[in-house]
């Protein structure tokens, strides 16, 4: 069978615990040892497969356990027996059936698109409206509590042609942040620097600390204060002449609309794991761009399937113009899960043109890192 009228007959899950190479500190939490993601495989009656990944972070979007249950218990019965081409209806049903759990819905949407692309012999970006770029500038985040290790990473990035880094700040004292910004300016001048507080600043200290950081003229400063503190975000934006980005404050189009109305940011970080699917992510991006805001391709602690999903989103969405941070597969996981490496060259992610997402996961690796399987497995 070759058309998208095929029914979905298989729904398989792998709950993975993936070792990482170092600790990472962010304003709102730490990652160390492993990160946990959920991989979904849909199978059509013709035997084609489509893959998706959910990459939650418990302090940001939600827990991997909730993600796994959302897919395994509540979304599975909505999907089995449905027509592959019914993607929009299936996504609406998933939205009604499970509140929140945006990562689970992102995985479902990705797998539906990958499956439709495999069946119709088209890349996912073609199904999202067509490709508007072939490469995406890659930003790698620096978040190691041991800055000597980040210096070693910077040397590797320099060799690899990466020219954008994002410094994670606000997890220790102000002097530590300023020391690292000085070091970047002095010793790594070829890198464009961005700064992300991940909500880490206490409200009373936020304005003064962000002002100091702004004197280093980073490309942008991201989410200095807690997600609901829109008023403070707007005050900080007024007080600095460096662009302020919203990340945790903006999950979907509803937040974006309020963010524009209240003037909290000059740009936004888009993530499929926040929006819960491609249509909502593209809606956020287009809304932001129509108000003159910059749009950045952010991510969570992801493996290669989620990176590929984000790559196709950005490839097909002109508004996402500030590059991406799909670095974990190459620079943070001890081993990624794809059959071939996530495609990066000279500091840019390369957009795949093969059908679907373009690369499949390696099932041996999924089995190796799996700590739970779904009901039908
Ligand atoms: Mg961020």
Automatic annotation (TrEMBL):
Q: One Pfam family for this entry, by name?
A: MR_MLE_C
Q: Specify the domain of life of the species encoding this protein.
A: Bacteria
Q: Which residues form a coiled coil?
A: none
* GO molecular function terms listed in the Swiss-Prot or TrEMBL record: magnesium ion binding; racemase and epimerase activity
List UniProt keywords, sorted A-Z.
Isomerase, Metal-binding
Q: Does the keyword Isomerase apply?
A: yes
Q: Write out the similarity annotation.
A: Belongs to the mandelate racemase/muconate lactonizing enzyme family.
Tell me the protein's name.
Answer: Muconate cycloisomerase
Q: Which organism is it from?
A: Marivita cryptomonadis
């Amino acid at each position: 069978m070759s058309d998208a009228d095929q029914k979905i007959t298989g729904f398989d899950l792998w709950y993975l615990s993936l070792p990482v190479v170092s600790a990472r500190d962010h304003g709102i939490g730490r990652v160390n040892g492993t990160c946990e993601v959920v991989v979904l495989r849909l199978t059509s009656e013709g035997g084609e497969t489509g893959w998706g990944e959910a990459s939650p972070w418990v302090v940001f979007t939600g827990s991997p356990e909730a993600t796994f249950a959302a897919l395994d218990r509540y979304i599975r019965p909505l999907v089995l027996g449905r027509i592959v081409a019914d993607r929009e209806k299936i996504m609406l049903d998933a939205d009604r059936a499970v509140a929140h759990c945006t990562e689970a819905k992102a995985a479902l949407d990705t797998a539906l698109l990958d499956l439709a692309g495999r069946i119709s012999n088209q890349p996912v970006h073609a199904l999202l409206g067509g490709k508007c770029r072939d490469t995406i500038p890659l930003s790698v985040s620096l978040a190691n509590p041991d800055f000597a290790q980040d210096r070693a990473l910077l040397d590797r990035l320099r060799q690899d042609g990466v020219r954008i880094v994002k410094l994670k700040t606000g997890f220790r004292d102000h002097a530590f942040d300023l020391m690292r910004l000085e070091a970047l300016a002095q010793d790594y001048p070829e890198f464009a620097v961005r700064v992300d507080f991940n909500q880490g600043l206490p409200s009373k200290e936020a304005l003064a600390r962000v002002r100091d950081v702004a004197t280093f003229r980073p490309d942008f400063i991201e989410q200095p204060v807690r997600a609901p503190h829109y008023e403070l975000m707007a005050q900080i934006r007024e007080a600095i002449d460096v662009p302020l980005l919203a990340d945790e404050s903006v999950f979907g189009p509803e937040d974006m609309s309020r963010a524009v109305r209240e003037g909290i940011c000059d740009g936004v970080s888009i993530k499929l794991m926040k929006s819960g699917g491609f249509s909502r992510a593209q809606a956020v991006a287009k809304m932001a761009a129509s108000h003159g805001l910059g749009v950045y391709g952010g991510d969570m602690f992801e493996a290669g399937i989620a990176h590929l999903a984000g790559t196709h989103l950005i490839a097909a969405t002109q508004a996402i113009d500030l590059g991406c941070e799909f670095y974990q597969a190459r620079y943070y996981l001890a081993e990624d899960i794809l059959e071939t490496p996530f495609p990066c060259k000279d500091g840019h992610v390369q957009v795949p043109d093969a059908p679907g997402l373009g690369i499949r996961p390696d099932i041996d690796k999924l089995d190796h890192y799996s700590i739970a399987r779904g009901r039908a497995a």
